[in-house]
Design a protein that fits this description.
By secondary structure, the chain is an alpha/beta fold. The chain has 13 helices and eight strands. Helix 3 packs across helix 4 and helix 11 packs parallel to helix 12. The N terminus is likely disordered.
Length: about 280
């Protein structure tokens, strides 16, 4: 399977700091759930078109915790949207057989989303990245699936994840680290997320070569009852993550305020000469 443009080539050509990945196609979206139930390709293609138009580099494909026909469903999703979207997919499932079906359906090399130190994921998910030579996301959670509070603990997990990957035949260059944002409403939620930023700051010092990073923005605002308040937090945190040099951000790419924040981070932190007109054009 061909590998689309690398992160370095995207940054060199397009001067992009933080690359958006769409999380719009997931089973919790009622439009997606209804389309899958009816095997209706049109709503899925419309989502893919919208994500492509928004400039997403990749799309997260999350069929949910399906018990029946899961391999058939992930294949249907990928075959329905990949020609329309044209980019890469993050295959977001903990079921190894479903992942294999998804990998087989992809025309471009996918990214496995993902693995952690949990034994079942090390033994069943990680080997697929070696077998199919794909990239894989590593979550900074411990053996019990828990998010460590302190940055030092998460950095220790990062070292173990990369070591496990190398033991399985996956080079560090193919590992993308997710330091794991948590809901702000958690007890100590803001502290967890401050520590997440510290991980992004310290991670480059941990390895000889740069390790790429990704974070899921929707985790941050999970449980928020107010759409406006949620959008306000997301847009502000996008700017913070850009300042801490996050590589990929998994988010709702069709939400205009998110795209505006991505564009603004580029204007404020990028190499181009700043102009107020570009700010006005993005509003």
């Amino acid at each position: 399977m061909p590998l689309l443009r690398s992160l370095d080539s995207i940054r060199e050509k397009d001067k992009v700091l933080m690359i958006p990945v769409a999380d719009n196609l997931h089973i919790m979206n009622p439009i997606v759930a209804k389309a899958l139930k009816k095997k209706d390709p049109l709503p899925l293609r419309k989502i893919a078109e919208d994500c492509k138009r928004a400039g997403a580099y990749a799309m997260d494909i999350n069929p949910g915790p399906l018990r029946h026909h899961a391999e058939e469903i992930i294949t249907f999703i990928i075959e329905t949207v990949q020609d329309t979207f044209g980019g890469r997919f993050l295959l977001d499932t903990v079921q190894a057989d479903v992942l294999e079906a998804g990998i087989a359906a992809c025309t471009n090399s996918p990214i496995i989303n993902g693995f952690s130190l949990e034994e079942i994921k090390v033994n069943s998910i990680l080997p697929l990245a070696a077998k199919y030579q794909t990239e894989i996301i590593g979550f900074l959670t411990n053996e019990k699936g828990q998010v460590p509070l302190r940055a030092e603990e998460r950095l220790a997990v990062a070292s173990q994840l990369v070591a496990k990957a190398e033991e399985s035949g996956v080079s560090p260059e193919r590992v993308i680290i997710d330091p794991v944002l948590v809901p702000l409403t958690w007890q100590d939620g803001t502290r967890y997320n401050r520590e997440c930023l510290e991980v992004l700051h310290l991670l480059p010092q941990l390895f000889e070569k740069p390790i790429r990073t990704i974070a899921g923005l929707s985790n941050l605002v999970a449980g928020s009852p107010d759409r406006v308040a949620r959008a306000t937090v997301e847009t502000n945190f996008i700017l913070i993550l850009a300042a801490f040099k996050l590589d990929f951000i998994l988010m709702n790419v069709t939400q205009k305020s998110n795209l505006n924040a991505i564009h603004l981070s580029q204007l404020l932190l990028g190499e181009k000469v700043f102009t107020w007109q570009e700010v006005k054009d993005s509003l």
